[in-house]
TrEMBL record:
<keyword id="KW-0770">Synapse</keyword>
<feature type="region of interest" description="Disordered">
    <location>
        <begin position="52"/>
        <end position="106"/>
    </location>
</feature>
<dbReference type="GO" id="GO:0005516">
    <property type="term" value="F:calmodulin binding"/>
</dbReference>
<keyword id="KW-0472">Membrane</keyword>
<feature type="compositionally biased region" description="Basic and acidic residues">
    <location>
        <begin position="90"/>
        <end position="100"/>
    </location>
</feature>
<dbReference type="InterPro" id="IPR035892">
    <property type="entry name" value="C2_domain_sf"/>
</dbReference>
<comment type="similarity">
    <text>Belongs to the synaptotagmin family.</text>
</comment>
<dbReference type="GO" id="GO:0051050">
    <property type="term" value="P:positive regulation of transport"/>
</dbReference>
<dbReference type="Pfam" id="PF00168">
    <property type="entry name" value="C2"/>
</dbReference>
<dbReference type="GO" id="GO:0006906">
    <property type="term" value="P:vesicle fusion"/>
</dbReference>
<keyword id="KW-1003">Cell membrane</keyword>
<keyword id="KW-0106">Calcium</keyword>
<dbReference type="GO" id="GO:0050796">
    <property type="term" value="P:regulation of insulin secretion"/>
</dbReference>
<dbReference type="GO" id="GO:0005544">
    <property type="term" value="F:calcium-dependent phospholipid binding"/>
</dbReference>
<keyword id="KW-0458">Lysosome</keyword>
<dbReference type="GO" id="GO:0005778">
    <property type="term" value="C:peroxisomal membrane"/>
</dbReference>
<keyword id="KW-0268">Exocytosis</keyword>
Amino acid sequence: MYLHPEAASAGAPSRDVLLVSAITTVSLSITIVLCGICQWCQRKLGKRYKTSLETVGTPDSSRGRSEKKTIKLPAGGKAVNTAPVPGQPPHDESDRKTEPRSSVSDLVNSLTSEMLMLSPGSEDDEGHDGVSRENLGRIQFSVGYNFQESTLTVKIMKAQELPAKDFSGTSDPFVKIYLLPDKKHKLETKVKRKNLNPHWNETFLFEGFPYEKVVQRVLYLQVLDYDRFSRNDPIGEVSIPLNKVDLTQMQTFWKDLKPCSDGSGSRGELLLSLCYNPSANSIVVNIIKARNLKAMDIGGTSDPYVKVWLMYKDKRVEKKKTVVMKRCLNPVFNESFAFDIPTERLRETTIVITVMDKDRLSRNDVIGKIYLSWKSGPGEVKHWKDMIARPRQAVAQWHQLKA
């Protein structure tokens, strides 16, 4: 069938039209591919940028909240924790799935860094002479005078942050109340078992005291650790002259406890070193020497040796002891003891050092004790922190023996 050229051109597209269509199709394809690549790049770059922001704690605008550092402690401890927004996953949950399992070194670093930050002791607790000033806690009490009944009222309320005196890492505190200079008549609170932050809320009355005599007295409070089978250990004391108190109404005080003036601070000192090996899960305790030990025998000397207890929570785990040094108040031991301590148990571990006087015919006497952990007194905590901060190094420090 024959068609006229003009009719044929009218029913079919021309070559120019086909060329333009092909060019348009190719351009669209290239654009789609480039957009896909661009979006993929943005996602990758965005993820990296977002991760870097989260590392330094910058607010994450995509989640509508600011990230804050979270510190978690094991069971039985306090936790400082910022709760996540309800319905949203934790901050690093998406990244955590793609990361390899944490190594032992990462666990050690995380644990020890938390312990260093949370330890209550610090270098600020030391004086200019480098001697640690121990925090003995504080006590809250009230005092007032009833003029009609000629009665002085003393209320012992509570205490906080008392030091541990027992092997279990705690104390059994109670309070004695005196009106000095009278030391014969005293009143006592109940004993609070295994409590470093006891609440007593007990009221005591000193009846028949004319006001003129009351203002000549000194209210003396002594906090002690109750021991069933031995002498009670003094924790600290507070003295307040009543002529400096407005007794017309009950006055409430918070007072820091000071060392008891009963000679308990003259028991001598012990030099020891600690070496923490996180890869071996061990601590090596080196008992080096002692000086100016208290004489426990009639001849004005002692036969000292040292016991080292490893405590986990409230349980005794393992005991080591040195040889006995006969008739010596400045013994040199140089004996080392290794204890296996898993890293995850380090925070709940206490090492109790007890210097003893050996007696052949009677019970051995305690010269003094030292409690080493991250929650002991400032001097002990400083040693513990230095040990953690300098792994695989022997860190030596002098410690004052305590009753």
